[in-house]
Specification:
This protein is an alpha/beta fold. The chain is 39% helix and 22% strand. The two termini are 24 Å apart. The structure holds 2'-monophosphoadenosine-5'-diphosphate (ATR).
Length: 276
């Protein structure tokens, strides 16, 4: 059996847990792989060179992480899956018919983890805090899971408005069944302070966890479940809602979920995320 080669490209990258996760998947399905961390200077020429060298050298698949997901999206031109198109970002690269293709598994990884936790999404009202790449990537998978509404709250309200407008514009370029999900969706936006009332699930998609600052959450805001896309550090967002009686989860399972979907895209093999 020949060994298949994979990389994850990022900056920084030393902390990435992707190699262990993918090695675990490979062992599970009996494949021989090498999965390496690839540091890359933060400019488009270096990123393009790294991607070309990897695939010209026979590499099978590359994951892309901060800060290269938008660059990867542009590099794939029109060879994008609908999820990558709506996300405006690519975390999974592969070659098909001699062309570089981009997919985004982050959002579906989140949805799969949430469902794995036993949290219902169908007909539920969702609030997402943050309007950067992380929140853009989860809108379509949440809609596809049948949520009733999505409210996006952001420190900069104009960015939350723009995110929703962009999603709606994208709908025209997508297959009909996916476009319909977006066109029928109840989407709204506000500042974080103006996010009040009760939600089934609140998701923190901001990068505030990196800074140690606290979100200006209203006293009247409550939820049954709270999810933070970050992991591996103290998360005051989760503490806040746990103190109010909500079930909470960090984003470690999302990391494993997105990896499982990338692995499946590259190898055609489904893996069991619960055995890691
Ligand atoms: P990512 O691609 O990880 O989403 P990003 O595009 O830089 O990263 O977006 C970061 C998100 O975290 C944004 O929604 C940002 O709010 P702004 O759009 O107002 O900048 C949010 N964020 C970061 N630090 C924050 C803070 N201290 N308070 C509130 N929101 C914060």
């Amino acid at each position: 059996m020949s060994t298949q080669h994979f990389i994850v490209i990022g900056n920084p990258i030393a902390h990435s847990q992707s190699p262990q996760i993918h090695q675990g998947f490979a062992a599970q399905v009996g494949l021989s792989i090498r999965y390496a961390r690839q540091l890359c200077p933060n400019d488009v020429h270096s990123f393009t060179a790294v991607v070309e060298a990897f695939f010209n050298g026979g590499g099978v698949g590359a994951n892309v992480t901060v800060p290269f997901k938008q660059m990867a999206y542009k590099l794939c031109h029109t060879n994008l899956t609908p999820h990558a198109q709506v996300a405006g970002a690519v975390n999974t690269l592969y070659m098909q018919n001699g062309k570089l293709c981009g997919h985004n598994t982050d959002g579906q990884g989140l949805v799969n983890h949430i469902q794995n936790l036993g949290w219902e999404l169908k007909d539920k009202n969702i609030a997402i805090i943050g309007a950067g790449g992380a929140s853009r990537g989860i809108i379509l998978p949440l809609l596809a899971a049948g949520v009733s509404s999505i409210h996006v709250a952001n420190r900069t309200v104009t960015k939350a408005d723009a995110l929703i407008e962009d999603c709606q514009k994208q709908a025209n370029n997508l297959p009909n069944n996916i476009a319909a999900l977006i066109k029928q969706a109840k989407l709204s936006a506000s500042s974080i302070e103006a996010l009040t009332g009760s939600y089934d699930v609140i998701i923190n998609a901001t990068s505030i966890g990196l800074s140690g600052d606290k979100l200006p959450l209203a006293d009247t805001l409550s939820c049954t479940k709270a999810y933070d896309m970050m992991y591996g550090r103290d998360l005051p967002f989760l503490q806040h809602f746990e103190d109010k009686g909500a079930n909470v989860s960090d984003g470690k399972g999302m990391l494993i979920g997105q990896a499982a979907l990338s692995f499946e895209q590259w190898t055609g093999k489904k893996v069991d995320v619960n055995t890691l």
